[in-house]
Design goal:
Elements lengths: L16 H23 L5 H8 L3 H29 L1 H20 L4 H16 L2 H11 L3 H33 L3 H4 L1 H15 L13 H24 L4 H23 L13 H31 L4 H7 L1 H21 L2 H17 L10 H27 L6 H27 L7 H25 L7
Helix pairs in contact: 1-6, 1-7, 1-9, 2-3, 3-4, 3-5, 3-6, 3-10, 3-17, 4-5, 4-6, 4-9, 6-7, 6-17, 7-13, 7-14, 7-16, 10-11, 10-17, 12-16, 12-17, 12-18, 14-16, 15-16, 15-18, 16-17, 17-18
Pfam family, one: MFS_1
Family: Belongs to the major facilitator superfamily. EmrB family.
Subcellular location: Cell membrane
């Protein structure tokens, strides 16, 4: 069987409205898993550490092994899907993700768990950009596509926000391994639904794989996050850290050099010359840095400094999930009706206010500022995802949807990995009495991320009403 069929260049099949929105639901279900597994582990880190007999510093790799691999492979997965078929790659990703989840659930040691999480990231990389490309391909009308992207982004954002709540409940009832077991039945259901409802689609033309670019991108991301995680232990000015900085510069410069010389680069760097696209990508990084710094710092503050159980700490995150749940669909509707600028301004305002609520947090401070911060940050997060996704993807032709979605998703996961690494670095080796003070730079960072979204809003373009 060959791959030279005219299908890639043919117009996408016209689906009924019911079928189009069914495709969206199926893709959103699968994407819920990717987002959930980015944050569901956060609330369980103390329990995982106790269960496997490891300390705080090593636990950061349980989260970032997943996010770094996911970020590094997203763009290549999008290109593979455009070349070999989006549904085919999507199904393969679900299979890898499901098997890796089961491996995480039975992990006998930290090393095994970290490796399994990395493999889980491989599977997830085949879901995130491909799901968005499938949705874009199924929605030819620009306004309907904008609403669909809003729903897709809302579900993904909700899954990130719901992770701590779901994780706390599962750990309380069944132990920390249950946060991985739960993926099994969802993956099986998604595989069946994809086979029945999702049509196959490809990009207009096949693209070559950029293996040198992929290797350099993976190295640059891995080294950057690795230095952030290990810096507090090895010393920021130690010879090993200095060597790490040098390698980051070399690999990043090498990546840019290779991409500029490739006829079909892994990442189309020319896209970043467009201010709306570049700012949307940076905005995605900022939003996910803010979310993950918030989740990790509050998890350790509530469980270590205040002695809360995982269930109580997860339940405290309900305002965040509520804010994201209510505001994400609203944001999608605003984007479809009036463009991305207004929801981005709202997102920036609420994220900034949320960070400021807990800058002065102490060990004996009332829990109310934390709950208020959760609510405000959840609202900001809910408003942010749809306009960022729409701004990034909406400026590109649908034929490049796989790679375009992958760049934005990469930015999100880079933000997640960096946020976890920074937050973990702030609290590593800090006793319960000092956690609140050590967390203060993290809350200032959350505030700064919120302020940056105002610049993203200014760079965004209003939707044409033609």
């Amino acid at each position: 069987m060959t791959t030279t069929s005219p299908a890639p260049s043919a117009a996408p099949p016209v689906l009924s409205a019911r079928r189009r929105w069914t495709v969206l639901v199926v893709c959103a279900l699968s994407m819920f898993l990717v987002g959930l597994d980015t944050t569901i582990v956060n609330v369980g880190l103390p329990e995982i550490g106790r269960g496997l007999g490891v300390g705080t510093r090593a636990l950061e790799w349980v989260v970032d092994a997943y996010t770094v691999v996911l970020a590094a492979l997203l763009i290549a997965s999008g290109a593979l899907a455009d070349r070999f078929g989006r549904r085919r790659v999507f199904q393969a990703g679900l299979g890898v993700f499901g098997v890796a989840s089961l491996a995480c659930a039975v992990a006998p040691s930290l090393g095994f768990l970290v490796v399994a999480r990395a493999v889980q990231g491989v599977g997830a990389s085949m879901l995130s950009p491909v799901a968005l490309a499938i949705v874009v391909n199924a929605m030819p009308d620009p306004r309907e596509r904008a609403r669909a992207i809003g729903v897709w982004a809302a579900v993904f954002g909700l899954s990130m926000a719901a992770g701590p709540v779901a994780g706390g409940g599962l750990i309380a009832a069944f132990g920390w391994r249950s946060v991985f077991w739960v993926n099994g039945p969802v993956v099986v259901a998604a595989l069946v639904l994809v086979a029945v409802f999702v049509p196959e689609s490809r990009g207009e033309r096949a693209r070559r794989l950029d293996l040198p670019g992929q290797a350099l991108l993976t190295a640059a991301l891995g080294l950057s996050v690795g230095v952030l995680i290990e810096g507090p232990r090895i010393g920021w000015a130690s010879p090993l850290a200095l060597a790490g900085y040098a390698l980051i510069v070399v690999t990043a410069a090498g990546f840019v050099r290779v991409e500029l010389r490739q006829s079909e680069p892994l990442m189309e760097l020319g896209l970043f010359r467009r201010p709306p696209f570049a700012m949307a990508a940076l905005g995605a990084v900022a939003v996910f840095v803010a979310l993950n710094v918030t989740l990790l710092l509050t998890t350790f503050h509530l469980q270590h400094a205040r002695g809360w159980t995982p269930l109580a700490a997860g339940t405290a995150a309900l305002p965040l999930a509520l804010g994201a749940t209510v505001c994400a669909p609203w944001s999608g509707a605003l984007v479809g009706r009036a463009g991305p600028r207004r929801p981005l301004v709202l997102a920036g305002g609420f994220l900034t206010a949320g960070g400021l609520c807990v800058v002065g947090l102490g060990r004996d401070t009332s829990v109310l500022p934390i709950l208020l911060a959760y609510l405000l940050i959840g609202i900001g997060f809910g408003f942010a995802n749809a306009p960022i996704t729409n701004t990034a993807v909406g400026g590109l032709p649908p034929s490049r949807a796989g790679v375009a979605g992958a760049i934005t998703s990469t930015a999100r996961q880079v933000g997640s990995a960096v946020g976890i690494a920074i937050a973990g670095g702030l609290v590593t080796g800090v006793g319960p009495a000092g956690l609140a003070g050590a967390s203060r730079p993290g809350w200032l960072l959350v505030t700064a991320c919120g302020l940056f979204l105002f610049a993203v809003a200014r760079a965004s373009r209003p939707t044409s009403r033609a």
